[in-house]
Amino acid sequence: MLGTATAFVLIVVFFLSGKFKGSAYEDAERIADLYAKQTASDVQVSLNESMAVARTLAQSVTTVNEIDYEDNESPYNKALLSVLKNNPRFSAIAISWEFSEINKAKYGRAQGRIRHMYYRSMEDNNEIFARHQLLDTVAYNITGLYYQIKIAENQEFLVNPYYSIYDTETGKDSIQMTTGTIHIRENDQYAGLVGFDIALDGLAEIIKNTIPYQGSYIFLVSNNGVVVTHPKKTAIGSLVTTLFPNANDIDIATKIKLGEKFNLGKIMGNDNSNYVTFSPFYTGKTKTPWSVGVSIPINEVAVSSVENRN
What we know:
alpha+beta; 30% helix
Protein backbone atom coordinates (compact mmCIF):
# COMPACT_ATOMS: atom_id res chain seq x y z
CA MET A 1 0.00 0.00 0.00
CA LEU A 2 1.15 3.50 -0.74
CA GLY A 3 0.32 4.61 2.80
CA THR A 4 2.63 2.23 4.64
CA ALA A 5 5.41 2.90 2.13
CA THR A 6 4.96 6.59 2.84
CA ALA A 7 5.20 5.88 6.57
CA PHE A 8 8.55 4.15 6.03
CA VAL A 9 9.87 7.12 4.03
CA LEU A 10 8.82 9.49 6.82
CA ILE A 11 10.67 7.40 9.39
CA VAL A 12 13.85 7.47 7.30
CA VAL A 13 13.54 11.25 6.96
CA PHE A 14 13.07 11.60 10.73
CA PHE A 15 16.21 9.57 11.41
CA LEU A 16 18.32 11.52 8.93
CA SER A 17 17.07 14.82 10.23
CA GLY A 18 17.86 13.84 13.81
CA LYS A 19 14.28 14.23 15.02
CA PHE A 20 14.45 10.86 16.78
CA LYS A 21 16.78 11.92 19.59
CA GLY A 22 15.07 10.26 22.53
CA SER A 23 15.56 6.86 24.09
CA ALA A 24 15.06 3.65 22.12
CA TYR A 25 11.66 3.37 23.81
CA GLU A 26 10.67 6.86 22.65
CA ASP A 27 11.82 6.09 19.13
CA ALA A 28 9.87 2.80 19.10
CA GLU A 29 6.82 4.68 20.35
CA ARG A 30 6.97 7.24 17.55
CA ILE A 31 7.59 4.65 14.84
CA ALA A 32 4.90 2.24 15.99
CA ASP A 33 2.32 5.00 16.44
CA LEU A 34 3.04 6.28 12.94
CA TYR A 35 2.67 2.82 11.38
CA ALA A 36 -0.50 2.07 13.32
CA LYS A 37 -2.12 5.33 12.27
CA GLN A 38 -1.18 4.94 8.61
CA THR A 39 -2.20 1.27 8.39
CA ALA A 40 -5.53 2.03 10.06
CA SER A 41 -6.08 4.68 7.40
CA ASP A 42 -5.24 2.17 4.63
CA VAL A 43 -7.74 -0.40 5.95
CA GLN A 44 -10.35 2.30 6.44
CA VAL A 45 -10.00 3.47 2.85
CA SER A 46 -10.45 -0.07 1.53
CA LEU A 47 -13.53 -0.80 3.65
CA ASN A 48 -14.99 2.64 2.92
CA GLU A 49 -14.79 1.90 -0.80
CA SER A 50 -16.80 -1.28 -0.26
CA MET A 51 -19.32 0.52 1.92
CA ALA A 52 -19.72 3.24 -0.72
CA VAL A 53 -20.64 0.62 -3.33
CA ALA A 54 -23.30 -0.82 -1.04
CA ARG A 55 -24.55 2.66 -0.12
CA THR A 56 -24.99 3.56 -3.80
CA LEU A 57 -26.90 0.32 -4.39
CA ALA A 58 -29.16 0.96 -1.38
CA GLN A 59 -29.93 4.45 -2.62
CA SER A 60 -30.64 3.37 -6.20
CA VAL A 61 -32.94 0.38 -5.74
CA THR A 62 -36.69 0.90 -5.60
CA THR A 63 -39.44 -1.33 -4.31
CA VAL A 64 -41.37 -1.68 -7.56
CA ASN A 65 -44.14 -4.24 -7.10
CA GLU A 66 -43.90 -5.51 -10.67
CA ILE A 67 -40.30 -6.71 -10.23
CA ASP A 68 -39.92 -10.46 -9.95
CA TYR A 69 -37.20 -10.70 -7.36
CA GLU A 70 -36.73 -14.42 -8.02
CA ASP A 71 -36.03 -13.99 -11.74
CA ASN A 72 -32.28 -13.98 -12.31
CA GLU A 73 -32.81 -12.32 -15.72
CA SER A 74 -34.67 -9.32 -14.34
CA PRO A 75 -32.84 -5.97 -14.60
CA TYR A 76 -32.89 -5.80 -10.80
CA ASN A 77 -30.98 -9.05 -10.33
CA LYS A 78 -28.66 -8.39 -13.24
CA ALA A 79 -27.62 -5.16 -11.53
CA LEU A 80 -27.01 -7.07 -8.30
CA LEU A 81 -24.90 -9.64 -10.12
CA SER A 82 -22.95 -6.88 -11.85
CA VAL A 83 -22.00 -5.36 -8.48
CA LEU A 84 -20.50 -8.68 -7.38
CA LYS A 85 -18.63 -9.23 -10.65
CA ASN A 86 -17.19 -5.72 -10.60
CA ASN A 87 -16.03 -5.92 -6.99
CA PRO A 88 -13.69 -8.90 -6.63
CA ARG A 89 -13.15 -8.14 -2.94
CA PHE A 90 -16.80 -9.11 -2.32
CA SER A 91 -17.50 -12.75 -1.51
CA ALA A 92 -21.24 -12.12 -1.67
CA ILE A 93 -23.79 -9.37 -2.24
CA ALA A 94 -27.39 -9.55 -1.04
CA ILE A 95 -30.55 -7.52 -0.67
CA SER A 96 -33.34 -8.27 1.80
CA TRP A 97 -36.76 -6.75 1.28
CA GLU A 98 -39.50 -6.62 3.89
CA PHE A 99 -42.66 -8.31 2.57
CA SER A 100 -44.56 -5.21 3.64
CA GLU A 101 -42.69 -3.29 0.93
CA ILE A 102 -43.05 -5.63 -2.08
CA ASN A 103 -45.69 -7.59 -3.97
CA LYS A 104 -48.08 -8.71 -1.24
CA ALA A 105 -50.40 -10.35 -3.78
CA LYS A 106 -47.64 -12.71 -4.93
CA TYR A 107 -46.27 -13.65 -1.54
CA GLY A 108 -49.53 -13.45 0.37
CA ARG A 109 -47.93 -12.27 3.59
CA ALA A 110 -46.78 -9.18 5.40
CA GLN A 111 -44.51 -10.88 7.93
CA GLY A 112 -40.89 -11.62 7.10
CA ARG A 113 -38.60 -10.86 4.20
CA ILE A 114 -37.18 -12.16 0.96
CA ARG A 115 -33.43 -12.27 0.47
CA HIS A 116 -31.74 -12.50 -2.90
CA MET A 117 -28.01 -13.21 -2.84
CA TYR A 118 -25.19 -13.82 -5.28
CA TYR A 119 -22.08 -15.44 -3.84
CA ARG A 120 -18.75 -16.76 -5.00
CA SER A 121 -17.65 -20.34 -4.49
CA MET A 122 -14.26 -20.54 -2.82
CA GLU A 123 -13.52 -23.85 -4.56
CA ASP A 124 -15.10 -23.97 -8.01
CA ASN A 125 -12.91 -21.45 -9.82
CA ASN A 126 -14.67 -18.57 -8.12
CA GLU A 127 -17.96 -19.53 -9.81
CA ILE A 128 -20.92 -17.33 -8.90
CA PHE A 129 -24.18 -18.80 -7.60
CA ALA A 130 -27.58 -17.30 -6.80
CA ARG A 131 -29.90 -17.99 -3.89
CA HIS A 132 -33.42 -16.82 -3.07
CA GLN A 133 -34.78 -17.27 0.44
CA LEU A 134 -38.01 -16.47 2.25
CA LEU A 135 -37.02 -15.73 5.84
CA ASP A 136 -38.64 -14.87 9.17
CA THR A 137 -42.08 -15.72 7.79
CA VAL A 138 -43.46 -16.79 11.18
CA ALA A 139 -41.71 -14.31 13.44
CA TYR A 140 -38.44 -12.43 13.68
CA ASN A 141 -35.69 -13.76 15.89
CA ILE A 142 -35.49 -10.70 18.08
CA THR A 143 -32.03 -11.68 19.32
CA GLY A 144 -30.74 -12.38 15.80
CA LEU A 145 -28.37 -10.12 13.93
CA TYR A 146 -30.79 -9.14 11.16
CA TYR A 147 -33.46 -7.95 13.58
CA GLN A 148 -30.95 -6.04 15.69
CA ILE A 149 -29.69 -4.24 12.58
CA LYS A 150 -33.26 -3.59 11.41
CA ILE A 151 -34.39 -1.84 14.59
CA ALA A 152 -31.15 0.03 15.22
CA GLU A 153 -31.04 3.79 14.80
CA ASN A 154 -27.69 3.64 13.02
CA GLN A 155 -28.14 2.71 9.35
CA GLU A 156 -24.65 1.35 8.57
CA PHE A 157 -22.94 -1.61 10.23
CA LEU A 158 -19.72 -3.57 9.99
CA VAL A 159 -20.40 -6.96 11.54
CA ASN A 160 -17.88 -8.60 13.85
CA PRO A 161 -16.01 -11.63 12.38
CA TYR A 162 -17.86 -14.90 11.89
CA TYR A 163 -17.55 -18.09 9.86
CA SER A 164 -19.91 -18.29 6.90
CA ILE A 165 -21.05 -21.45 5.14
CA TYR A 166 -22.75 -20.51 1.89
CA ASP A 167 -23.35 -24.13 0.84
CA THR A 168 -25.38 -25.44 3.78
CA GLU A 169 -25.93 -28.83 2.13
CA THR A 170 -22.27 -29.80 1.78
CA GLY A 171 -20.72 -27.54 4.40
CA LYS A 172 -18.21 -26.24 1.87
CA ASP A 173 -16.82 -22.72 1.82
CA SER A 174 -16.61 -22.15 5.57
CA ILE A 175 -14.52 -18.98 5.70
CA GLN A 176 -14.02 -16.15 8.16
CA MET A 177 -15.99 -13.13 7.01
CA THR A 178 -17.22 -9.71 7.90
CA THR A 179 -20.41 -8.20 6.52
CA GLY A 180 -21.13 -4.57 5.79
CA THR A 181 -24.80 -3.57 5.80
CA ILE A 182 -26.80 -0.47 4.89
CA HIS A 183 -30.50 0.19 5.41
CA ILE A 184 -32.83 0.70 2.48
CA ARG A 185 -35.27 3.46 3.37
CA GLU A 186 -38.66 4.18 1.82
CA ASN A 187 -40.47 7.33 3.00
CA ASP A 188 -38.04 7.43 5.89
CA GLN A 189 -39.11 3.93 6.96
CA TYR A 190 -37.03 0.75 7.02
CA ALA A 191 -37.76 -1.25 3.85
CA GLY A 192 -34.84 -3.63 3.59
CA LEU A 193 -31.12 -4.11 3.73
CA VAL A 194 -28.12 -4.24 1.39
CA GLY A 195 -25.30 -6.42 2.61
CA PHE A 196 -21.90 -7.48 1.29
CA ASP A 197 -19.47 -10.11 2.58
CA ILE A 198 -15.70 -9.77 2.57
CA ALA A 199 -13.34 -12.64 3.35
CA LEU A 200 -11.08 -11.39 6.11
CA ASP A 201 -7.96 -13.01 4.70
CA GLY A 202 -8.21 -10.41 1.92
CA LEU A 203 -7.52 -7.66 4.46
CA ALA A 204 -4.17 -9.27 5.21
CA GLU A 205 -2.96 -7.96 1.85
CA ILE A 206 -3.47 -4.42 3.13
CA ILE A 207 -1.71 -5.11 6.43
CA LYS A 208 1.48 -6.58 5.05
CA ASN A 209 4.31 -5.84 7.45
CA THR A 210 6.60 -3.18 6.02
CA ILE A 211 8.21 -2.16 9.31
CA PRO A 212 12.01 -2.39 8.88
CA TYR A 213 12.71 -4.03 12.27
CA GLN A 214 13.05 -7.75 12.82
CA GLY A 215 10.37 -9.10 15.11
CA SER A 216 7.90 -6.29 14.45
CA TYR A 217 4.39 -7.03 13.22
CA ILE A 218 1.02 -5.45 12.41
CA PHE A 219 -2.36 -6.96 13.21
CA LEU A 220 -6.06 -6.10 12.90
CA VAL A 221 -8.68 -6.40 15.65
CA SER A 222 -12.46 -6.17 15.28
CA ASN A 223 -14.75 -4.15 17.52
CA ASN A 224 -15.46 -7.14 19.77
CA GLY A 225 -11.75 -7.79 20.31
CA VAL A 226 -11.30 -10.69 17.88
CA VAL A 227 -7.96 -10.88 16.06
CA VAL A 228 -8.70 -10.60 12.33
CA THR A 229 -5.19 -10.70 10.84
CA HIS A 230 -1.92 -11.67 12.49
CA PRO A 231 1.43 -13.12 11.31
CA LYS A 232 0.77 -16.13 13.56
CA LYS A 233 -2.13 -17.99 11.97
CA THR A 234 -3.01 -19.60 15.29
CA ALA A 235 -3.75 -16.15 16.73
CA ILE A 236 -6.44 -15.37 14.15
CA GLY A 237 -9.90 -15.76 15.62
CA SER A 238 -8.68 -15.52 19.22
CA LEU A 239 -9.37 -12.64 21.58
CA VAL A 240 -6.70 -9.96 21.52
CA THR A 241 -6.55 -10.03 25.31
CA THR A 242 -5.07 -13.55 25.16
CA LEU A 243 -2.08 -12.23 23.17
CA PHE A 244 -1.03 -9.78 25.87
CA PRO A 245 -1.53 -11.40 29.29
CA ASN A 246 0.99 -8.95 30.81
CA ALA A 247 -0.85 -5.82 29.71
CA ASN A 248 -0.49 -4.02 33.05
CA ASP A 249 -4.20 -4.19 33.85
CA ILE A 250 -5.13 -2.17 30.76
CA ASP A 251 -8.69 -2.99 29.64
CA ILE A 252 -7.77 -3.68 26.00
CA ALA A 253 -11.21 -4.95 24.95
CA THR A 254 -13.08 -1.89 26.26
CA LYS A 255 -10.64 0.58 24.72
CA ILE A 256 -10.95 -1.12 21.32
CA LYS A 257 -14.74 -1.21 21.58
CA LEU A 258 -14.84 2.52 22.35
CA GLY A 259 -12.40 3.41 19.57
CA GLU A 260 -9.64 4.74 21.80
CA LYS A 261 -6.04 5.24 20.70
CA PHE A 262 -3.81 3.66 23.32
CA ASN A 263 -0.65 1.67 23.94
CA LEU A 264 0.43 -1.13 26.24
CA GLY A 265 3.85 0.29 26.94
CA LYS A 266 6.62 -2.29 27.23
CA ILE A 267 5.42 -5.87 26.81
CA MET A 268 7.96 -8.56 27.66
CA GLY A 269 8.58 -11.14 24.96
CA ASN A 270 10.86 -14.18 24.96
CA ASP A 271 14.14 -12.26 24.76
CA ASN A 272 13.01 -8.71 24.20
CA SER A 273 10.57 -5.97 25.17
CA ASN A 274 8.10 -4.76 22.56
CA TYR A 275 6.25 -1.49 22.39
CA VAL A 276 2.63 -2.22 21.42
CA THR A 277 0.16 0.41 20.24
CA PHE A 278 -3.40 0.50 18.86
CA SER A 279 -4.98 2.95 16.41
CA PRO A 280 -8.76 2.91 15.77
CA PHE A 281 -10.71 3.55 12.59
CA TYR A 282 -14.38 3.70 11.58
CA THR A 283 -15.87 2.27 8.40
CA GLY A 284 -18.40 4.47 6.62
CA LYS A 285 -21.02 5.78 9.05
CA THR A 286 -20.72 2.85 11.42
CA LYS A 287 -20.35 3.32 15.17
CA THR A 288 -18.34 0.17 15.81
CA PRO A 289 -14.63 1.01 15.38
CA TRP A 290 -11.97 -1.61 14.64
CA SER A 291 -8.29 -1.18 15.52
CA VAL A 292 -4.87 -1.76 14.00
CA GLY A 293 -2.18 -2.92 16.39
CA VAL A 294 1.58 -2.59 15.92
CA SER A 295 4.31 -4.30 17.93
CA ILE A 296 7.98 -3.22 17.63
CA PRO A 297 10.98 -4.68 19.51
CA ILE A 298 12.62 -1.85 21.42
CA ASN A 299 16.10 -3.39 21.16
CA GLU A 300 15.91 -3.48 17.36
CA VAL A 301 15.03 0.21 17.30
CA ALA A 302 17.89 0.96 19.67
CA VAL A 303 20.44 -0.67 17.35
CA SER A 304 19.07 1.18 14.32
CA SER A 305 18.99 4.48 16.20
CA VAL A 306 22.65 4.19 17.16
CA GLU A 307 23.68 3.26 13.62
CA ASN A 308 21.81 6.24 12.14
CA ARG A 309 23.25 8.70 14.62
CA ASN A 310 26.89 7.64 14.14
